[in-house]
Amino acid sequence: METVELVSANGVMTIVMNRPEKKNAINNLMWSELLQSFHIAELDDDVRVVVLTGRGGNFCSGADLADPVRGEGSPYRHQLLRMRRIGMTIAALHNLSKPTIAKVKGVAIGAGMGLALGCDLVLASQDAVFSAIFSKRGLSPDGGISWLLPRIVGLQKAKELAFFGEMINAEEGMSIGLVNRVIANNELDAVVDEWATRLRNGPPIALSMTKRLLNTSFTVSFDEALDAEATTQTVNLYSFDTEEAIRAFAEKRIPHFEGY
Fold it and tell me: For residue 112, which of 96, 90, 97, 95 has the smallest C-alpha distance?
């Protein structure tokens, strides 16, 4: 791939947006290659955790506004087709059955902010900044932000961020729930590696079902959530991993999860 780099090691796939000269702004090709990358991560049973990040000190500065959106030079005959491809890409990230971590340095703006929030966990360096900048470009939110932002920070705060499109730093992002942790710039890689390792060593089936239960919690009734919990817990109780966890507890050792 030309705009995305995949690095897999020890059950962790790192997906690197690789247009540093543009602060990893997403052009048409990158949208397609990100979609392909998320599908690769989903279908590879050796991958237990996905880390999404950017090359060159920035996460992603959003959509590349210099990229043709339709007509000559664009792979899409109509803008709606391009937006649907963007939607497919964001959905593929959000729906990954494996835990995902956004490692955010520098800017996470517009669709870049959407990609960060589409991950399960957001770890940010002290110099990270976020913005739902769309209104300043005469646009309304995309990249999943209209759905993700109210669920993460609440409706009123989401309206403030979307209406004004102001930049917010990592500390403020953590205070409103956008960011899980703010980490010193020179320690970010180590902390992300630690979290990824802890997730990789966790029970893949249980983590996958936990993610799905939480992601659907705003769209189901309480009774439906209880029924889903019963189903997923039944699957767990018949798995090797749960048996292994119980044995490990009795034997006072760390469990070794196999994913079945």
Answer: 90
Distance in angstroms (rounded) separating the CA atoms of residues 115 and 59: 9
Give the predicted TM-score (pTM) of the model.
Answer: 0.93
- Rg of the chain over all Cα atoms, to the nearest angstrom: 19
CA end-to-end span of the chain? 32
Strand, coil or helix: 14: strand
Beta bridge partners of 8: 13
CA angle 182, 58, 151 (to 5 degrees): 55
The sheet with strand 107-109 has its strands ordered as: 107-109, 129-131, 168-169
DSSP string covering 135-158, please?
Answer: GGGT----TTHHHHHHHHH-HHHH
Cβ pair 162, 171 in contact under 8 A: no
CA 57 to chain centre: 18
Look-up: residue for tokens 């209406």? Answer: 163
| Predicted confidence (pLDDT) per residue in 221-252, tens digit | 999 999 999 999 999 999 999 999 999 999 99
- Let me know: does 67 contact 28? Beta carbons within 8 Å: yes
Pick from 106, 214, 97, 86: nearest CA to 146: 86
